[in-house]
Amino acid sequence: MEIWINPACSKCRSALTLLDAEGAEYTVRRYLEDVPSETEIREVLTRLGLEPWDVTRTADPLARETGVRDLPREATDEARARWITHLATHPKLIQRPIITADDGTAVVARSEESVREALARRG
C-alpha cells in the first residue's frame, strides 16, 4: 500500500494516524517532492475509476491561476491528457491523500471511512 501525501495537509496526517493505529504496512510518497509522472497519474486514475478532473482541487487558488478550471471536461483522450499534464506540472492540485490498495484499486482517503475502505483491501 502506498499513500500520496502533503505533510501540511490535516486529512493526510489523519489518514497516517489511522493507518498506524491499524498496524498497516505502507509507503509514504510526498508527492509534492516526488512528483508523479503522467503515466503514474493515469495508472492511479484507472485504479480509482475516476477522471482527472475528479481528483483535481479546482477550488484551490492555483487552479484559477493556472487555468485548469477552464479545461474541457470531456471523456476524450485529448481532454484527459491535458488535465493529466496539468496535474503532473502542478501536483499541488491533486486531491490528497490517495491510497493505492494492495488489491490494485485506490481511494481518495479524505475521510476515516475511505481509509478503512483501503485497509479492508489489504491482502
From TrEMBL:
Enumerate the SUPFAM superfamilies for this protein.
Thioredoxin-like (SSF52833)
What family does the database annotate?
Answer: Belongs to the ArsC family.
Q: What is this protein called?
A: Arsenate reductase family protein
